[in-house]
Design goal:
Layout lengths: L8 E10 L2 E11 L16 H7 L6 E9 L3 H7 L7 E9 L5 E10 L11
Antiparallel strand pairs: 1-2, 2-5, 3-4, 4-5
Length: 121
């Protein structure tokens, strides 16, 4: 993510679903000083990009890698997510206007439920 050795991060793990249907498993690392105050008081269910922007760190660019992978074994066991086949993993580093990496995210999208269109320039 391009952090200094003494930087602190918040690690946020989320499982998003449509009712009982799991769709996205996410692990995000957010630079701690980008979010003021105690983290336990935040509503972590919304958009991390919107939250960062609201605190003066709007995402302006990112670098991402897309790959088809199996969900990690420990995650499959913990959340009963075995048997869904390959997931689409998007690994992304998000950058602020100052050029600072502020968020690293690994989002696993269920392969049978998502398709992505990518434009490369």
């Amino acid at each position: 993510m391009g952090l200094a050795d003494d930087d602190t991060v918040i690690r946020l793990e989320r499982l998003r679903s449509d009712g009982d249907d799991p769709l996205v498993y996410s692990v995000a690392s957010i630079v701690r000083d980008a979010i003021p105050g105690p983290v336990r008081h935040f509503d972590w269910s919304g958009s991390l990009s919107d939250m960062l922007a609201a605190h003066g760190h709007p995402p302006v660019s990112s670098a991402a890698r897309l790959s088809a992978v199996e969900l990690p074994e420990d995650v499959q066991r913990r959340y009963s997510l075995g048997g869904f086949g390959p997931w689409l993993l998007i690994s992304e580093t998000v950058i602020t206007p100052a050029g600072r990496p502020v968020l690293y995210a690994e989002d696993y999208h269920r392969g049978d439920a998502f398709a992505f269109n990518v434009l490369r320039r």
